[in-house]
Amino acid sequence: MSENKKSYMPLGSDDGDGPETGYDALMHEVCVGWGFCGCIKNDKPLHVSDLIPDTGKVTADQFVEWVFLADNMNPNSDPDRWKRHKDAIKAAFIEHMGGDVVDAELLEYADTMGPHLP
User: Fold this and answer.
1) Which of 106, 113, 10 is nearest to 63 (CA)?
2) Pairing mode of beta strands 44-46, 39-41
């Protein structure tokens, strides 16, 4: 993974408004809305951004798996428990990214995103 991919988390505003489109909006929904914001693993922050390759195609299903893995959870550990969350994250990916498969380069925060946590 190149150095330009960093582990950032968007911070929500007090009024609940978030970015409207693209990866920023997707991550706002996933992290701020549902609490899938990553974890601390081996004394280092881990975020879904750390698991996305620099290039190539990424499917909604891959992204969903990476969201769970970034939270140190096995997405297949309890299928009945997690199905609703997996379906919602997949739907959000398709809505915000414009399809079921996108180029990995699109899965990066915009330079204009507000404050971030390293």
Assistant:
1) 106
2) antiparallel
**β strands within 6-117, DSSP E:** 39-41, 44-46, 57-59, 101-103
11-45: burial string, b at 16+ Cβ within 10 Å, e else: eeeeeeebbeebbbbbbbbbbbeeebbbeeeeeeb
Q: What pLDDT does residue 66 have? A: 96
The first and second tokens of residue 6, run together, are: 């960093």
Which parts of the chain have pLDDT scores under 50?
1-16, 113-118
Task: Catalogue the long-range contacts made by 41-47 (C-beta closer than 8 Å, 24 or more residues apart).
Answer: 41/72, 45/7, 45/117, 45/118, 46/7, 46/70, 46/72, 47/7, 47/8, 47/9
17-42: per-residue pLDDT in tens? 566 779 999 999 999 999 999 999 99
